[in-house]
Design goal:
2 domains; 11 helices; Rossmann fold; alpha/beta; Alpha-Beta Plaits; four-stranded antiparallel beta sheet; globular; seven-stranded mixed beta sheet
């Protein structure tokens, strides 16, 4: 992906969430994107204890921290287990927008550790590529970053290519991985040309997998136009020149439920509850629903909310879980 902007620098803000307050993230992400001109949100793992260990006496709260220290913190996030989001600002008024966003967080969420920094724009691609590696979902399914495409062409597994863009999901986060794992387990039960909905699609990685592996016409739906742009980019990456009849991208406000044989909803608990009627209205008889974005302790609540469906399986990784439901015939 190439981003063309007049600015030669960009700002980013790191916000660290604990297990107790990670439910704030969905709302804060929406505020960032809709009210403060945020140009992208990236999520990565970060353990609070590890951050404290790295920072030590160099701890900062709400102020600028050196680039070297940001890199040190990010390098420690690989395979760690907690919740940190990185908010990017690079277009017109990016400095004002990021400053206003920082003020908003300090005023409304003073308990959230916050770090901010500015970098040169030539470092942009390096920022995205640092921490993305191939994701081996199973022996037959791999998720490959776009810049590693050529080096993995000879792998026998089926491959989905992804550009992380603004960090809307690459398979590296536990919830995305768990959804892909559940899809892989039921893939043989899905008929080609049956229909799929990727609700809250982000990068489109889940729907693209269904479309690529099972030729399922897929509706990609999200509240964020930037996510849909990233999704389109990844569709082109995987299907350039191909006709994808029956598939479409649609903003959430314009989505009206139609029946699908497979629905992905990798969104947070409160959104799964809020959107329950729409999600259930989108699921066909004998259809499968894969939900995630859930902390382990939230599983029982969602199973209860979706008790009209059969709970087929629950899978977990670290603090996160995903659920496979099936609608009775």
């Amino acid at each position: 992906m190439k981003v063309y902007v007049e600015n030669k620098k960009f700002n980013f803000v790191l916000i660290q969430y604990s297990r107790e307050n990670v439910n704030f993230a969905d709302g804060i992400n929406a505020y960032a994107l809709e009210d403060f001109g945020c140009d992208g949100v990236e999520e990565f793992s970060l353990e609070e204890a590890r951050v404290d260990e790295i920072l030590g006496e160099r701890a900062y709260s709400g102020g600028d921290i050196p680039e070297s220290l940001i890199d040190e913190i990010q390098a420690a996030t690989i395979d760690q287990d907690s919740f940190t989001y990185k908010y990017f600002f690079y277009q017109e008024d990016f400095e004002v927008n990021s400053s206003d966003f920082v003020f908003f967080i300090k005023e409304n969420y003073p308990e959230l550790p916050l770090f901010t920094a500015q970098k040169n724009f030539e470092d942009w691609n390096a920022e995205w590529k640092k921490f993305y590696t191939p994701i081996i979902v199973s022996e037959r399914l791999e998720i490959i970053p776009e810049w590693l495409k050529e080096s993995h062409e000879n792998s026998p597994a089926q491959k989905v290519y992804i550009y992380p863009g603004m960090g809307f999901g690459t398979g590296t986060h536990e919830t995305t991985y768990l959804c892909l794992s559940l899809f892989d387990k039921i893939s043989d039960l899905l008929k080609p040309a049956s229909h799929c909905l990727d609700f809250g699609c982000g990068s489109g990685i889940l729907g693209i997998t269904a479309l690529k592996i099972k030729s399922m016409p897929t509706v990609f739906c999200d509240i964020d136009k930037s996510a849909l742009n990233n999704c389109m980019q990844n569709l082109v990456l995987n299907f350039e020149g191909e006709m994808l009849e029956g598939s479409k991208l649609i903003i959430r406000d314009r989505y009206s439920p139609v029946l699908n044989d497979l629905v992905f909803a990798n969104i947070l608990e409160n959104v799964l509850i809020l959107e329950k009627k729409v999600i259930l209205s989108s699921l066909n008889k004998s259809g499968f629903l894969i939900v995630s974005g859930l902390l382990n302790h939230q599983v029982d609540k969602i199973v209860s909310e979706y008790n009209s469906l059969e709970k087929v399986a629950v899978v977990s990784k670290n603090d996160w879980s995903a659920i496979l439901f099936k609608r009775h015939s």
